[in-house]
Amino acid sequence: MTEIAVASERQTAIRLLACIQAAGDTNTASQWGPDVVCVLHSQSRLQALDFWMRNPDYLANELLTEFETSGERDLLAIAQRIFDDREPDLRRLPMVRYLFGAFEPLDNALAILRAADLIRIKRIGVPGGKIREHLYILTTAGEAALERIAAAAPELGWYRDRAWIVARVAGAQGGKALKDRQYLQAEYAGTELSHVIKPVTDRVLARLAAILERLDE
Fold first, then answer.
1. What is the pLDDT of residues 33-80, one digit of tens each?
2. pLDDT tens-digit readout, 104-119
């Protein structure tokens, strides 16, 4: 298999922390403790969010789809900025397609967050049986740490800001629904198992140009 770019465990930890904060459910936070900010449900949802964090061209495509539905011009502007900043070249961290879609082991990065009590992980299921769902619980310490990280440098603040955009695109959909959306892209669905998921940069850039041309008419 071709060697691909990878992030450090600490970079991955920051990225996951930002996803949990941005896409976590605040409504049920109090039931998990007085110092809990929000709860992100399911490993598959976290993996799907991480895919859009790591593949800016796929995220831009979703932004264009949302724009064509809602007409919100800021979505179009964000998609355009992704290409203006050359993110598909500079920020892409490819993922490998497995049987259930894009996946990468996250245990080491999550362990960094757990060790500092920035997050807690609960496993829901039958005692002694199969785990039905993972819950990723953001603590007040985790929220404060992310704010300190984001304030330390614009490069680090990018993770927090991008996670909010990803969460906006994802909405309240669960992991399976998000994976199904990602599978709608032919390049994703057509990638062979155990191979790097193919980019959609050229196709999405052409789609953006067509939309801008139509708006100028």
1. 999 999 999 999 999 999 999 999 999 999 999 999 999 999 999 999
2. 889 999 999 999 999 9
Q: Could you tell me which of 49, 31, 48, 47 has the C-alpha nearest to residue 39?
A: 31
pTM exceeding 0.70: yes
Spatial separation of the C-alpha atoms in residues 132 and 155, rounded to whole Å: 36
Closest to 51 (Cα-Cα) out of 5, 111, 96, 109: 96
Residue 132's SS3 state is: strand
CA 202 vs. chain centroid, Å, equals 21
Residue 163 pLDDT greater than 90, yes or no: yes
CA distances from 196 to 1, 73, 106, 109, 203 (A): 8, 32, 17, 21, 18
Our CA angle for 19, 44, 62, nearest 5°, is 65
Distance CA 187, CA 97 (A): 11
Q: For tokens 């629904």, what's the residue? A: 177
Question: Two tokens at 12?
Answer: 């991955």
Going edge to edge, which strands form the sheet with 131-139?
Answer: 36-41, 131-139, 119-125
Tokens in use for 156?
């680090």
